[in-house]
Design a protein that fits this description.
The complex is a heterodimer.
Chain A (H helix, E strand, L loop, with lengths): L4 E14 L2 E14 L3 E5 L6 H9 L6 E11 L3 E4 L8 H6 L4 E4 L3 H4 L6 H12 L4 H14 L5 H5 L8 H13 L5 E5 L7 H18 L2 E6 L2 H7 L2 E6 L2 E7 H6 L4 H8 L51 E4 L2 E3 L7 H34 L12
Parallel strand pairs in A: 3-8, 3-9, 6-7, 7-8
Antiparallel strand pairs in A: 1-2, 1-4, 4-5, 9-10, 10-12, 11-12
Helix pairs in contact in A: 4-5, 4-7, 5-7, 7-8
Chain B lengths: L1 H11 L7 H10 L1 H29 L5 H11 L6 H11 L5 H13 L6 H6 L7 E2 L4 E2 H36 L4 H15 L2 H16 L9 H6 L6 H35 L2 H9 L3 H13 L1 H5 L1 H19 L4 H10 L3 H29 L1 H4 L6
Antiparallel strand pairs in B: 1-2
The chains are: A alpha/beta, B mainly alpha.
Chain lengths: 377, 376
């Protein structure tokens, strides 16, 4: 593992056991985050962003099963493979909240209504920093002040229902930062807030990041927020990363048709009022029993028949730091990927033809059996 | 920065001593205290309404108290003259309007003065009138079983909670496990089997195993000498069957309610937040899930209390338990309205007190309930 990286995710898969069958919500995600860097994870609802970051903390639901590798570069215990840890054990609890913490989407429901804000922030301090009551309260209060909560003495003893949404998000950030974590996962932290509060919260996160040198995994579907916050961006679609690059590169030179669509569907000030917003047609398919093909094929405008619907593109690095998974890209490295895929398709079809032939032969040879109940396998 | 410095100073400097009045004002300014006072004040009109209802019940049978009394005396061979009857009516205020009669009835229950005729005869300040069925004054009949009824009911209630809460927590944290199913089946059986059948079966079993029929709450010895420490163990032994029979009928409901509520809470966002903070799983369950999940159960305490009062009657008859249920039944069968009214009144008051207590407990549990509004 690279010393510069704080987190390396390799081939992460998350399966959800459902009544209808296995749903693969995250299908082999690779990314790494350097110390102090902000990585934006962008994608539409249901593409597996949240599951990915819950897998990093191993707080996924019982029904979800994560496989692959998530390596965390911990200061205390060196390199840790998170997926190997017992999700209820002490080792992972020492990472949660202390070294990696998380800010949730909806601050209004992220706090328990039964306890004061101070109690809930202080719980984190007392778990990870000091058992001393007075000291931990002082630390918690100072962090609350730092995130811009005024009148902390009063606020400390108030309940979540006495806070506004923006204040709750600040409190949530305070709770996430109280132990100076090395890494912060922000799961759409501003989605539930109005625009002015959103800007304040983002500024706050940026300045705190500078103070603590925290790496941030920033999950959002808001490209404006990404441009403001992130150093690098990874675009996720149907449980896979389809393009990742520096923020500037993504905006200046988006290559994947999905990324192009995403950027195209952001409205711009100055455009005519009658101008229709660009939208990507269709919806994300359900990630259950997916055929082997590009997940974006049905919605893609530049899809190549016979290639995109028969093979799935791998992520290729076309320039240093710029990776893309698309057959329809003009870059030479993508062309090479196309060749590889074509060969694979040809081989697979050959195999399948032979299999069919063999089956037909066997069927002709085998003595006919009486059917008892309906079909027989 | 300036404000920060001020805040820090405030934190360090100790609060100046406040006057008694200020402390008092502070105390009553608290949401919790105000809530409790409000709830206690609401207790009074509730009891008032209950008493009107009971008074109405008492007035239901044809004829008035005096005519009933006269016929009761007549059966004992004592004939009252018309004048004596009129004098009696006047003394009981039966010639006055209904509202005045109600007022007098309430007044007599709360405090009968020492110089009244009732006090001279019965030496009691609480005049609940006369029970014709028992041939005694109502309060004497009620008093006999009131203490034991409250004792038995509270023991059964404690049993219900003590059994169902741990099971509910286990079932919800181990959803769809073998234990969960086993407890569910047992709970459903407890609810589905009629109490009296369970009572008879248990009585039979206890007779078979111990050779004694532990029927009734008291042994011969206790009837004579009363309950003391030396025979308290025996008393508890006799309580086992009633507790199992009456207790299991409500346990399933409590288990299902807490289990469902717990499952709801376990899926909540704040449970996830707590987990992401690194809180121990056990603490998450107890601190975040359980405290929120217990809420509907605590608020249902009054209902459980009243169902215990009324639901235990049949069991009490089968097991020959000396509690109020059978007494009430007998009073109703013999149209002994003063006794029935007194029992209903007392039980209703107890239930209202139970509801009051559960509401106060709820306010301690859930800050949103005691929250009376105010600035953000």
């Amino acid at each position: 593992m690279n010393k510069e990286n704080i987190l390396e995710v390799k081939d992460l898969r998350v399966n959800i056991h459902m009544m209808e069958g296995e749903l693969t919500a995250v299908r082999g995600v690779n990314f790494e985050i350097k110390k102090g860097e902000t990585l934006g994870l962008v994608g539409e609802s249901g593409c597996g962003k949240s599951l990915t970051c819950k897998a990093i903390l191993a707080i996924n639901d019982k029904k979800c099963e994560a496989s692959g590798s998530i390596k965390f570069n911990s200061d205390e215990s060196g390199e840790v493979e998170i997926l190997d840890l017992d999700p209820k054990g002490d080792a992972i609890r020492n990472i949660r909240g202390k070294q990696i913490s998380m800010i949730f989407q909806e601050p209004m429901v992220a706090f328990s209504p039964m306890y004061t804000i101070g109690n809930q922030i202080n719980e984190c301090t007392r778990l990870h920093i000091t058992k001393d009551k007075k000291k931990s309260k002082e630390i918690s209060m100072s962090v609350m002040k730092k995130v811009g909560i005024a009148n902390v003495e009063k606020r400390y003893n108030q309940y979540p229902h006495e806070f506004s949404g923006g204040m709750l998000q600040r409190a949530l950030i305070a709770m996430a930062l109280v132990c100076n974590p090395k890494m912060l996962i922000a799961d759409e932290p501003t989605t539930a807030l109005d625009v002015t509060i959103q800007a304040q919260i983002l500024e706050l996160m940026k300045s705190l990041q500078k103070d603590f040198n925290t790496a941030i995994l920033f999950i959002t579907h808001d490209l404006g927020v990404v441009a403001k916050m992130c150093d690098r961006v990874a675009v996720m679609y149907l449980g896979k990363i389809v393009e990742s690059a520096d923020t500037e590169t993504i905006y200046a030179n988006p290559l994947h048709p999905y990324t192009k669509g995403l950027i195209g569907s952001v409205h711009k000030i100055g455009g005519s009022r009658d101008e229709r917003l660009f939208s990507i047609e269709g919806t994300v398919p359900l990630a259950m029993n997916l055929p082997i093909r590009c997940g974006f094929y049905d919605r893609c405008t530049v899809a190549i028949d016979g290639l995109c619907n028969k093979a799935e593109p791998e992520l290729v690095e076309i320039e240093p730091g710029h990776k893309i998974a698309c057959f329809a890209c003009d870059h030479e490295k993508c062309k090479a990927e196309c060749e590889r895929a074509r060969k694979e398709i040809a081989e697979r079809e050959k195999r399948e033809r032979r299999k069919v032939e063999i089956e037909a032969q066997e069927a002709a040879m085998a003595p006919k059996k009486k059917k008892l109940f309906g079909r027989r396998a | 920065m300036d404000t920060n410095v001020n805040v820090a100073e405030n934190m360090n400097s100790k609060k100046p001593k406040s006057t008694f009045f200020e402390v008092l004002k502070d105390f009553f300014g608290k949401d919790l205290v105000r809530y409790i006072i409000r709830r206690v004040l609401m207790f009074i009109p509730t009891i008032f309404l209950v008493s009107i209802l009971v008074f109405f019940v008492i007035q239901l049978p044809p004829g008035d108290y005096v005519s009933a009394h006269i016929s009761a005396l007549a059966s004992e061979g004592e004939i009252l003259t018309e004048d004596e009857a009129e004098a009696m009516r006047a003394e009981y205020g039966l010639d006055k309007p209904v509202i005045v009669q109600y007022g007098m009835w309430i007044r007599d229950i709360i405090w009968t003065p020492t110089d009244s005729q009732y006090y001279r005869i019965h030496h009691s300040h609480h005049n609940w009138k006369y029970s014709f069925a028992f041939g005694k004054n109502v309060w004497d009949v009620v008093e006999e079983r009131l203490g034991i009824t409250i004792l038995v009911t509270s023991i059964i209630m404690i049993f219900q909670y003590a059994v169902s809460i741990p099971i509910a927590i286990y079932s919800s944290t181990h959803q769809y496990s073998v234990g969960d199913y086993v407890f569910s089946v047992i709970g459903f059986l407890g609810t589905a089997i009629p109490n009296f059948i369970l009572a008879i079966v248990l009585m039979y079993l206890s007779y078979k195993w111990t050779g004694k029929a532990n029927v009734g709450l008291f042994s011969q010895d206790m009837m004579v000498n009363g309950i003391h420490w030396y025979n308290f163990g025996e008393f508890l032994k006799r309580l086992i069957i009633p507790i199992i029979v009456i207790g299991t009928s409500g346990t399933c409901g409590i288990i299902r309610s807490i289990r469902a509520q717990m499952l709801d809470e376990i899926g909540r966002q704040y449970t996830l937040t707590a987990r992401a903070k690194g809180v121990k799983e056990r603490k998450i369950v107890m601190k975040y899930c359980f405290r929120a999940a217990i809420n509907p159960t605590v608020s249902g305490l009054g209902g459980i209390l009243s169902s215990l009062f009324s639901g235990s009657t049949v069991t009490a008859l089968v097991l020959n338990m000396q509690i109020q249920g059978p007494q009430l039944l007998q009073a109703l069968l013999t149209q002994d309205m003063y006794l029935a009214g007194a029992i209903v009144m007392i039980q209703a008051t107890l239930v209202v007190v139970g509801i009051l207590l559960s509401d106060i407990a709820l306010a301690f549990l859930d800050p949103r309930i005691r929250y009376s509004g105010g600035s953000r």
